[in-house]
Amino acid sequence: MSIHLNRDLENVQRRVLSLAAAVEQIVEKSIRALFERDATLARTLMESDTPIDMEENVIEEECLKILALHQPVAVDLRRVATIVKINSDLERMADLAVNIAERALALAQGPEVPVPTTFHQMTDLTNTMVRDSLDAFLKLDVALAKRVCRLDDEVDRYNRAIIDHVSEFMKQSPSNVDPGLHMFSAARQLERIADHATNIAEDVVYLVEGKIIRHNPEAIK
Protein backbone atom coordinates (compact mmCIF):
# COMPACT_ATOMS: atom_id res chain seq x y z
CA MET A 1 0.00 0.00 0.00
CA SER A 2 1.33 3.43 -0.90
CA ILE A 3 1.84 6.06 1.77
CA HIS A 4 -0.73 8.33 0.12
CA LEU A 5 -3.38 5.60 -0.11
CA ASN A 6 -2.84 4.65 3.52
CA ARG A 7 -3.12 8.30 4.57
CA ASP A 8 -6.36 8.82 2.66
CA LEU A 9 -7.88 5.57 3.97
CA GLU A 10 -7.05 6.45 7.55
CA ASN A 11 -8.53 9.92 7.11
CA VAL A 12 -11.82 8.69 5.69
CA GLN A 13 -12.07 5.99 8.35
CA ARG A 14 -11.61 8.61 11.08
CA ARG A 15 -14.41 10.64 9.52
CA VAL A 16 -16.82 7.71 9.36
CA LEU A 17 -16.05 6.75 12.98
CA SER A 18 -16.73 10.34 14.05
CA LEU A 19 -20.01 10.22 12.13
CA ALA A 20 -20.84 6.93 13.83
CA ALA A 21 -20.36 8.47 17.27
CA ALA A 22 -22.73 11.32 16.35
CA VAL A 23 -25.36 8.92 15.02
CA GLU A 24 -25.11 6.70 18.09
CA GLN A 25 -25.84 9.74 20.28
CA ILE A 26 -28.85 10.76 18.21
CA VAL A 27 -30.33 7.26 18.41
CA GLU A 28 -29.91 7.14 22.19
CA LYS A 29 -31.34 10.64 22.68
CA SER A 30 -34.36 9.98 20.47
CA ILE A 31 -35.24 6.97 22.58
CA ARG A 32 -34.79 9.00 25.74
CA ALA A 33 -37.08 11.71 24.38
CA LEU A 34 -39.71 9.05 23.71
CA PHE A 35 -39.61 7.46 27.14
CA GLU A 36 -39.25 10.70 29.11
CA ARG A 37 -41.85 12.59 27.04
CA ASP A 38 -39.24 15.28 26.47
CA ALA A 39 -40.68 17.58 23.81
CA THR A 40 -37.73 19.99 23.95
CA LEU A 41 -35.20 17.24 23.29
CA ALA A 42 -37.38 15.84 20.52
CA ARG A 43 -37.52 19.22 18.76
CA THR A 44 -33.74 19.61 19.06
CA LEU A 45 -33.15 16.20 17.49
CA MET A 46 -35.54 16.96 14.64
CA GLU A 47 -33.23 19.84 13.65
CA SER A 48 -29.97 17.87 13.97
CA ASP A 49 -30.06 15.79 10.79
CA THR A 50 -28.59 18.27 8.27
CA PRO A 51 -24.95 18.16 9.51
CA ILE A 52 -25.05 14.34 9.32
CA ASP A 53 -26.41 14.45 5.77
CA MET A 54 -23.62 16.85 4.77
CA GLU A 55 -20.94 14.69 6.38
CA GLU A 56 -22.28 11.61 4.61
CA ASN A 57 -21.82 13.42 1.30
CA VAL A 58 -18.25 14.42 2.18
CA ILE A 59 -17.29 10.87 3.15
CA GLU A 60 -18.78 9.44 -0.04
CA GLU A 61 -16.89 12.00 -2.13
CA GLU A 62 -13.64 11.13 -0.35
CA CYS A 63 -14.19 7.43 -1.04
CA LEU A 64 -14.82 8.12 -4.73
CA LYS A 65 -11.60 10.16 -4.88
CA ILE A 66 -9.67 7.26 -3.37
CA LEU A 67 -11.09 4.89 -5.98
CA ALA A 68 -10.23 7.27 -8.81
CA LEU A 69 -6.76 8.33 -7.64
CA HIS A 70 -5.38 5.14 -6.11
CA GLN A 71 -7.35 2.32 -7.76
CA PRO A 72 -7.10 0.12 -4.64
CA VAL A 73 -7.32 -3.67 -4.88
CA ALA A 74 -7.95 -6.63 -2.56
CA VAL A 75 -8.40 -5.66 1.10
CA ASP A 76 -7.96 -1.94 0.39
CA LEU A 77 -10.80 -2.06 -2.14
CA ARG A 78 -12.98 -3.96 0.35
CA ARG A 79 -12.19 -1.32 2.96
CA VAL A 80 -13.36 1.52 0.71
CA ALA A 81 -16.48 -0.41 -0.31
CA THR A 82 -17.27 -1.15 3.33
CA ILE A 83 -16.88 2.48 4.37
CA VAL A 84 -19.24 3.59 1.58
CA LYS A 85 -21.89 1.11 2.72
CA ILE A 86 -21.48 1.86 6.43
CA ASN A 87 -21.63 5.59 5.67
CA SER A 88 -25.01 5.10 4.00
CA ASP A 89 -26.33 2.93 6.85
CA LEU A 90 -25.32 5.55 9.41
CA GLU A 91 -27.18 8.30 7.54
CA ARG A 92 -30.30 6.15 7.39
CA MET A 93 -30.04 5.39 11.12
CA ALA A 94 -29.93 9.12 11.84
CA ASP A 95 -33.04 9.64 9.69
CA LEU A 96 -34.85 6.91 11.60
CA ALA A 97 -33.81 8.43 14.93
CA VAL A 98 -35.30 11.75 13.81
CA ASN A 99 -38.50 9.90 12.93
CA ILE A 100 -38.57 8.51 16.48
CA ALA A 101 -38.09 12.06 17.79
CA GLU A 102 -41.12 13.16 15.74
CA ARG A 103 -43.21 10.39 17.30
CA ALA A 104 -41.84 11.33 20.74
CA LEU A 105 -42.97 14.93 20.23
CA ALA A 106 -46.46 13.84 19.21
CA LEU A 107 -46.76 11.52 22.21
CA ALA A 108 -45.44 14.18 24.61
CA GLN A 109 -48.20 16.56 23.54
CA GLY A 110 -51.00 14.08 24.27
CA PRO A 111 -52.15 12.02 27.26
CA GLU A 112 -49.58 9.70 28.77
CA VAL A 113 -49.49 6.30 27.10
CA PRO A 114 -48.27 3.21 28.95
CA VAL A 115 -45.08 1.90 27.35
CA PRO A 116 -44.89 -1.91 27.31
CA THR A 117 -41.93 -3.54 29.03
CA THR A 118 -40.98 -5.18 25.76
CA PHE A 119 -40.40 -1.72 24.27
CA HIS A 120 -37.74 -0.98 26.90
CA GLN A 121 -36.15 -4.38 26.22
CA MET A 122 -36.20 -3.75 22.49
CA THR A 123 -34.56 -0.32 22.86
CA ASP A 124 -31.84 -1.72 25.13
CA LEU A 125 -31.09 -4.47 22.64
CA THR A 126 -31.09 -2.10 19.66
CA ASN A 127 -28.72 0.29 21.43
CA THR A 128 -26.43 -2.66 22.14
CA MET A 129 -26.51 -3.70 18.48
CA VAL A 130 -25.66 -0.20 17.29
CA ARG A 131 -22.79 0.14 19.74
CA ASP A 132 -21.41 -3.37 19.11
CA SER A 133 -21.63 -3.11 15.31
CA LEU A 134 -19.53 0.06 15.42
CA ASP A 135 -17.07 -1.50 17.88
CA ALA A 136 -16.77 -4.48 15.55
CA PHE A 137 -15.89 -2.13 12.70
CA LEU A 138 -13.35 -0.24 14.79
CA LYS A 139 -11.69 -3.42 16.07
CA LEU A 140 -12.31 -5.58 12.97
CA ASP A 141 -13.92 -8.10 15.33
CA VAL A 142 -15.73 -10.76 13.30
CA ALA A 143 -17.03 -12.66 16.34
CA LEU A 144 -18.67 -9.50 17.70
CA ALA A 145 -20.09 -8.67 14.26
CA LYS A 146 -21.69 -12.11 13.97
CA ARG A 147 -23.16 -11.74 17.46
CA VAL A 148 -24.86 -8.52 16.34
CA CYS A 149 -26.33 -10.37 13.34
CA ARG A 150 -27.77 -13.07 15.60
CA LEU A 151 -29.47 -10.47 17.81
CA ASP A 152 -31.57 -9.14 14.93
CA ASP A 153 -34.09 -11.98 15.21
CA GLU A 154 -34.62 -11.14 18.87
CA VAL A 155 -35.38 -7.51 18.02
CA ASP A 156 -37.92 -8.74 15.46
CA ARG A 157 -39.61 -10.84 18.16
CA TYR A 158 -39.83 -7.84 20.48
CA ASN A 159 -41.31 -5.79 17.65
CA ARG A 160 -44.06 -8.35 17.04
CA ALA A 161 -44.85 -8.43 20.77
CA ILE A 162 -45.12 -4.63 20.84
CA ILE A 163 -47.48 -4.67 17.86
CA ASP A 164 -49.73 -7.15 19.66
CA HIS A 165 -49.67 -5.07 22.87
CA VAL A 166 -50.41 -1.78 21.14
CA SER A 167 -53.16 -3.37 19.06
CA GLU A 168 -54.96 -4.40 22.23
CA PHE A 169 -54.43 -0.92 23.71
CA MET A 170 -55.99 0.71 20.63
CA LYS A 171 -59.04 -1.55 20.81
CA GLN A 172 -59.86 -0.30 24.31
CA SER A 173 -60.88 3.20 23.22
CA PRO A 174 -61.03 5.35 20.06
CA SER A 175 -58.89 7.93 21.89
CA ASN A 176 -56.11 5.35 22.04
CA VAL A 177 -55.83 5.07 18.26
CA ASP A 178 -53.64 8.12 17.56
CA PRO A 179 -51.10 7.51 20.36
CA GLY A 180 -51.12 3.82 19.48
CA LEU A 181 -50.19 4.61 15.89
CA HIS A 182 -47.34 6.83 17.07
CA MET A 183 -46.09 3.97 19.26
CA PHE A 184 -46.39 1.57 16.31
CA SER A 185 -44.31 3.91 14.19
CA ALA A 186 -41.63 4.40 16.84
CA ALA A 187 -41.24 0.64 17.25
CA ARG A 188 -40.97 0.22 13.48
CA GLN A 189 -38.24 2.88 13.23
CA LEU A 190 -36.36 1.18 16.05
CA GLU A 191 -36.59 -2.19 14.32
CA ARG A 192 -35.17 -0.64 11.15
CA ILE A 193 -32.27 0.89 13.11
CA ALA A 194 -31.45 -2.63 14.30
CA ASP A 195 -31.54 -3.78 10.66
CA HIS A 196 -28.97 -1.13 9.73
CA ALA A 197 -26.77 -2.17 12.65
CA THR A 198 -26.96 -5.70 11.27
CA ASN A 199 -25.93 -4.41 7.84
CA ILE A 200 -22.85 -2.79 9.37
CA ALA A 201 -21.96 -6.01 11.16
CA GLU A 202 -22.31 -8.00 7.94
CA ASP A 203 -20.05 -5.49 6.18
CA VAL A 204 -17.40 -5.98 8.89
CA VAL A 205 -17.35 -9.71 8.12
CA TYR A 206 -16.98 -8.89 4.42
CA LEU A 207 -14.13 -6.48 5.14
CA VAL A 208 -12.17 -8.92 7.27
CA GLU A 209 -12.93 -12.25 5.57
CA GLY A 210 -14.02 -11.24 2.08
CA LYS A 211 -17.26 -13.19 2.54
CA ILE A 212 -20.77 -11.88 1.85
CA ILE A 213 -22.93 -13.34 4.63
CA ARG A 214 -26.15 -11.38 3.99
CA HIS A 215 -29.20 -13.70 3.65
CA ASN A 216 -27.10 -16.65 4.88
CA PRO A 217 -28.12 -17.61 8.46
CA GLU A 218 -25.61 -20.46 8.54
CA ALA A 219 -22.73 -18.01 8.15
CA ILE A 220 -23.40 -16.26 11.46
CA LYS A 221 -23.50 -19.32 13.72
Number of strands: 0
Q: How many domains? A: 1
Helix content: over 70%
- Unreliable stretches (pLDDT < 50, length at least 5) are none
CATH class: Mainly Alpha
The proportion of residues in beta strands is under 5%
- Rough outline: globular
Q: Do you know the CATH architecture?
A: Up-down Bundle
Outline the biggest β-sheet. none
CATH superfamily: Phosphate transport system protein phou homolog 2, domain 2
What is the CA–CA distance across the termini? 33 Å
Rounded mean pLDDT is: 93
Q: Output the number of helix runs.
A: 7
Structural class: mainly alpha
Question: What name does CATH use for the topology?
Answer: Methane Monooxygenase Hydroxylase, Chain G, domain 1
Radius of gyration, rounded?
19 Å
What is the H/E order?
Answer: HHHHHHH
Structural account:
By secondary structure, the protein is an all-alpha fold. It has a single domain, classed as Phosphate transport system protein phou homolog 2, domain 2 (Methane Monooxygenase Hydroxylase, Chain G, domain 1), CATH 1.20.58.220. 84% of the residues lie in helices and 0% in strands. The protein is built from seven helices and no strands. Helix 1 runs parallel beside helix 4 and helix 2 crosses helix 4. The radius of gyration is 19 Å and the shape is globular.
